[in-house]
UniProtKB/TrEMBL annotation:
This is Response regulator. PROSITE patterns: RESPONSE_REGULATORY. One of its GO terms (biological process) is phosphorelay signal transduction system. InterPro entries: Bact_response_regulator, CheY-like_superfamily, Sig_transdc_resp-reg_receiver. The lineage of its organism: Bacteria, Pseudomonadati, Bacteroidota, Sphingobacteriia, Sphingobacteriales. It comes from the Bacteria. Residues 4-118 form the Response regulatory domain.
Length: 119
């Protein structure tokens, strides 16, 4: 059985690139560019890990993490935050994310970080 990852980023180019790269790692990739829809997507699919952009319109990544952590049915899913923000790592820690990846990211390092949470 393939492990599942949900990717949520408002940048479609990043989402498509990550989808291609992570599918090559034998992951079932589920993508969403609208942060308003991602909680339902996560609840419906129960992924093994979530890759989440920090700065998105309407609902920001840190708000999404807070919603996930407050829902007992999905609260334990590992979350990796992605961001180019200088304080992104600190924000990720403060809201309870399991890890942080700075943008622009190295593809190999990103795959390694994802693999840490699905093995």
């Amino acid at each position: 059985m393939n492990r599942k990852i949900v990717i949520c980023d408002d940048d479609l180019d990043i989402v498509e690139m990550l989808e291609i790269v992570l599918e090559d790692s034998n992951l079932e990739v589920i993508t969403e560019t609208d942060s308003r829809k991602v909680i339902e997507l996560i609840s419906d699919n129960h992924p093994d890990v979530i890759l989440l952009d920090l700065w998105m319109p309407v609902i920001t990544g840190d708000q999404v993490v807070k919603q996930i952590r407050s829902d007992s049915s999905i609260a334990n899913i590992p979350i990796l935050i992605m961001s180019a923000a200088q304080d992104g790592h600190q924000i990720a820690q403060e809201v309870g994310a399991n890890g942080f990846i700075s943008k622009p990211f190295d593809i190999d390092q990103l795959i390694e970080r994802v693999q840490e949470f699905i093995t």
